[in-house]
Amino acid sequence: MTSQTDSTGANARYFRQGLRLQHLRIMAALAEVQLVSKVAERLHVTQPAISKQIAEIESALSAPVIYRERNRLFLTDVGQRLAAHAQAVMQQLRRAELELEALSLGASGHLRIGAVTSLSPTLVAKAVVAFKRVAPRVSISVTEGHFISLRPLLERGEVDVVVARVWQPQEVPDLEQSVLTSEPIVVVSGRDHPLAKRRRLQWSDALSWPWILPDKQSVARRAIEAFWAEQGMATPGDVIEAQSLPLSLALMCDLPYLGLFPETLALSHAMRGDLSVLGLRMGGVLAEGRCFWRKGQIEQNAVLRPFLDCLRAVPGRF
């Protein structure tokens, strides 16, 4: 209760100092993207307009909120504090907007989600929680799989939206899409695996061990094998094909197999002592997550837009 009161009081002081809502939007965006050009793109204004409003912010506070070093932009201590309050205000406004939209729609019905397993326990789960808070009468079903298996379901109207990792982004006929997240994929093992004790690893060390991988027909498997081929490496001969992350976790606890997990989930399990995160990187392969829906469905499906908004509003998704 105290922190909320402190935040409200701080925001009130900022407004008394002459800051406007647009100023807070700019600070919230700067904290995320750290580039004036990207802030301008996100807010659909020109770069000079953003620079002018940053000057207005600094004038209102009588203190700098940004500084530049070697062509990079950083927030000052004052800027960081203002940005934190700005992000809180933007989240509150977004929640209010979603709630009002759901109420105006009288949102009810059924939302059918398709999702890859690496995004289900993180991005999708958080979005579903947020969505149920604003649209509690909507029933939800989630079908897990890989994009190649989920895409036909989306095209036939058997699911309303698909959330998937992409390898080589491209336009898909009759489907709309939106970028949601950029999260690295990391190499993991059981905590007692011999490689878990090694500080320095090469890919040749890891690929001499057996692996748990997605099935051969999936986008993920093709991307992984293409990455290894670029390193001059072949796919290991001993492979268990499994889509389920809980199954992969259970297998790695008892077998000397290596696997690939999204970084957030991998670090969470590592903190609990279930897994070890190895010092190998996938070079951005499969880092980008997107959502896909059929063209024209936002206008026809009353619950789709609020759910897409919840996906985009998941904290920490970038």
Q: Would you kindly provide a written description of the structure presented here, covering whatever features stand out?
A:
- This protein is of the alpha/beta class.
- The protein is built from 13 helices and twelve strands.
- The strands form four sheets. A five-stranded mixed β-sheet has the order 4-3-5-12-6, with helices on both faces. A three-stranded antiparallel β-sheet has the order 10-7-11. Strands 1-2 form a two-stranded antiparallel sheet.
- Helix 6 (120-134) links the parallel strand 3 (109-115) and strand 4 (138-144).
- The longest helix is centred in the first third of the chain and has 29 residues, at 77-105.
- The radius of gyration is 22 Å and the shape is globular.
- The two termini are 28 Å apart.
- The relative contact order is 0.14.
- The model is unreliable at 1-8 (pLDDT under 50).
- Summed over residues and divided by their number, the pLDDT gives a mean of 86
Shape: globular
**Count of distinct strands:** 12
Percentage of residues in helical conformation = 40-55%
Uncertain stretches of 5 or more adjacent residues: 1-8
In spatial order, strands of the major sheet run: 4-3-5-12-6
Indicate the radius of gyration in whole angstroms: 22 Å
Distance between the termini: 28 Å
> What structural class do you assign from the helix and strand content?
alpha/beta
Q: In oligomeric terms, what are we looking at?
A: single chain
N-to-C series of helices and strands: HHHHEEHEHEHEEEHEHEHEHEEHH
Q: Main β-sheet: number of strands, strand sense, barrel status?
A: 5 strands, mixed
How much of the sequence lies in strands comes to: 15-25%
